[in-house]
Design a protein that fits this description.
There is one protein chain. 35% of the residues lie in helices and 39% in strands. By secondary structure, the chain is α+β, with helices and mostly antiparallel strands. Strands 4-3-2-1-5 form a 5-stranded antiparallel β-sheet. The longest helix has 18 residues, at 54-71. The chain contains 2 helices and 5 strands; from the N terminus they run ββββαβα. The chain has helices spanning 39-45, 54-71; strands spanning 2-8, 15-22, 25-30, 33-36, 50-52.
Length: 72
Amino acid sequence: MKQYVVVRDEITNEVELIGRFENGLGEIFKDGKWQTNGVIYSLQMDGLLEDITEVEALKLIAQKESQELQVA
């Protein structure tokens, strides 16, 4: 089972990081792909992760990629 999470900016509430846990493995979405990253465990311990659904995660990823294409 996958658990999807985000980290939001405290002031603007914008999503700064999209992550997921799958079978205990923490990953973040960076540079267009899922990458194993230990920082997600630190964020979890600090209580900075917000649970979201897979559908919400996919929408956020699509928005992020669309914004990156517009900048390029």
